[in-house]
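R.M. (postdoc): so does anyone remember the format we settled on? I'll just put the structure tokens first.
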């Protein structure tokens, strides 16, 4: 998977939280659901304002920055069943 860095944010992650790029292009986090307990409401961690391009997956990488990778579409086609 070829990825490219889009924006530097350098956020520090806390255990038990899910970090993602929201619709506004900012980094948000939410408490993960564990063992029957509900997750938490998302809260903004960093305002970045990345403009998203369609066909790309945006994510928070290991360094705490926003990266993107081209989405792989397709896969195995289903065989038609005989009637």
């Amino acid at each position: 998977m070829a990825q490219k860095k889009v924006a530097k944010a350098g956020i520090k992650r806390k255990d038990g939280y899910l970090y993602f790029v929201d619709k506004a292009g900012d980094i948000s986090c939410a408490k993960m659901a564990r063992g029957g307990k509900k997750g938490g409401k998302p809260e903004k961690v960093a305002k970045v304002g990345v403009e998203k391009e369609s066909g790309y997956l945006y994510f928070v990488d290991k360094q705490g920055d926003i990266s993107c990778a081209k989405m792989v579409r397709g896969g195995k086609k289903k065989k038609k069943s005989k009637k």
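R.M.: ...and that's the designed sequence above, right after the tokens. Also worth knowing: The mean pLDDT is 89. The chain has one domain: 3-70.
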